[in-house]
Amino acid sequence: MSKQFDVIAIGGGPGGYIAAIRAAQLGFSVACVDEWKNSKGGPALGGTCTNVGCIPSKALLQSSENYDQAGHQFAEHGIELKGISLNIPKMIGRKDAVVKQNNDGIAYLLKKNKVTFFHGRGSFVAAKDGTYVIRVTGASEEAISGKHIILATGSNARALPGTPFDEVNILSNEGALCLSSVPGRLGLIGSGVIGLEMGSVWHRLGADVTILEGLPVFLGAVDQQVAKEGHKAFIKQGLKIELGVKVGEIKLGTKGVSVAYVDGKGLPQTLEVDKLIVSIGRVANTRGLEPETVGLKLYDRGAIVVDDECRTNLPNVWAVGDVVRGPMLAHKAEEEGVAVAERIAGQHGHVNFNTIPWVIYTHPEIAWVGQTEEQLKAQGRACKAGTFPFMANGRARALGDTTGMVKMLADAATDEILGVHIIGPYASELIAECVVAMEFRASSEDIARICHAHPTLSEATKEAALAVDKRTLNF
Ligand code: FAD
Ligand code: NAI
Fold it and tell me: Which ligand is nearest to the CA of 244?
């Protein structure tokens, strides 16, 4: 007789483990199945986000920023350091320790919430009498059954056709996060989120970085006023970013990797690098689920077909996170996981896709929520824009970090905030106020009338709100 559960979450990343915890809080008997292995073959809960995504990238971004600050910024504060040196194995070791703290923390949370964890690959075996049988293949094999199944099997890095990742010279995010030394010349294909974050890490640590981007515009999905400011800042730091390229043959040689491409002017070029990171997006992962066994519908590119509420075509089978449509972000996966658990309990779980924040953790940071000016124009929606530069913000001056601005977009007639776009110090933290404001459908005047502590970076948000009505006080 197989072990029976009310809910089985397949995948232990932010979508799956959070759904499992919420379902357990709501009184269900819950299992979570995850196949990720640590270097010793044991479990490593947290999925892409914890093991090879959000957490390790932010650990390395912090370490590399500290190094950059010590080498380039401290002197301005009168702190003169001599003989700074890098210990890459130690830096990578610290990153691994941060990852492990998170793996262990999630295992603890599952236990605390009485979620039964199975380490292994979950695959559909059968559906009968309103129950799904799942085979878990790990160190041993066992069958478990559940009335509700939440699929949260995540995504994998997309490779260039004909150029598989070897994680030695041609790297996905996985290899990019564990190099044992700084490559002299580093190439990246794709100047999206991973390209910029990983390019920044290794550039700060000393690599000569070139990023080849297919699109003719930089950060096409980002408000273009902010994107242009970012482009300028990254070029000034020394990142080489070529736009509008067409990547051709990639060859592995004894001296590294050579990338043939046609540049933005139509001229043939070759980029010779020691290591190449390919960061051209990610593809949904249903590997091993055996969806055909139960007739689970997938799109051609592999994502699971779901409706607005994460229901698949099968009764009581749900899917959340990177494996379904929408932005591939950890907090989006979590929100969907919570909403699905609540729907299973007969509640009205809800995810507002218009208020999901985005953050690029470069320096300067870029963060936004809602619509860009370009999107509003394309919709023919009249809006007012207010911007405020960090150059005019006292706290930013004290930090010595004055690049960037806050830009607020509000409806021309109702003044409702439609989007906020920030480039500058702690944009990742500043955006939270704007998300709250948009969730409460605040107007720019609401933010403009709220008292913000002085001196803080958040005053720039208030001033951008004042700027919507052309009445900034400090600029
Ligand atoms: P995942 O986290 O991918 O988890 C899926 C889990 O399911 C994995 O553990 C996998 O092993 C397991 N699994 C798959 N199939 C099976 C099966 N059949 N049986 C059992 N287990 C299975 N997002 C942010 O919001 N902020 C960031 O700063 C950020 N940084 C990132 C940096 C990098 C380098 C990368 C690559 C991604 C980053 N992301 C970030 C994106 C974020 O990691 C994903 O959006 C998030 O992890 C998606 O969560 P998920 O639960 O859907 O899937
Ligand atoms: P991305 O979609 O952000 O960027 C991919 C870039 O590659 C795009 O600019 C695209 O135009 C370009 N591209 C695609 N094919 C190309 C080709 N053949 N040649 C040249 N350029 C090409 O994808 P990325 O950076 O791989 O990240 C994947 C996802 O992971 C992100 O979209 C995001 O959802 C998530 N992520 C989130 C982070 C965060 O929240 N801070 C950090 C890192 C990843």
Answer: 2
Q: Which residues are marked as active site?
A: 454
Stated pTM of the model: 0.98
CB 211 within 8 A of CB 231: no
Distance of CA 431 to the CA centre of its chain: 15
Which atom of ligand 1 approaches the CA of 121 most closely? Answer: 19
The pair of three-digit structure tokens given for residue 16, joined into one six-digit string: 């799956």
Contact 127, 294 (CB under 8 A): yes
Distances (CA, A) of 213 to 240, 241, 390, 423: 11, 7, 29, 21
Contact 430, 367 (CB under 8 A): yes
In a mutational test of the pocket of ligand 1, which residue from 45, 153, 172, 304 has the highest number of ligand atoms less than 8 Å from its CB? Answer: 153
Instruction: Give the whole-angstrom CA distance, residue 157 versus residue 154.
Output: 11
Average pLDDT over residues 128-146: 95
Amino acid making up residue 264: G
Ordered by where they begin, the domains of the chain are: 3-157+283-351 (3.50.50.60), 170-280 (3.50.50.60), 355-468 (3.30.390.30)
Residue 10: in which H helix or E strand, if any?
strand 3-10
Percentage of the chain modeled with pLDDT above 70: 100
CB count within 10 Å of CB 297 equals 11
Q: What is the mean pLDDT of residues 294-303?
A: 95
At residue 1, does pLDDT exceed 80? no
Q: What is the pLDDT of residue 309?
A: 97
Average confidence score pLDDT of the chain = 97
**Which token pair is 23?**
């379902």
Ligand nearest to the CA of 190: 2
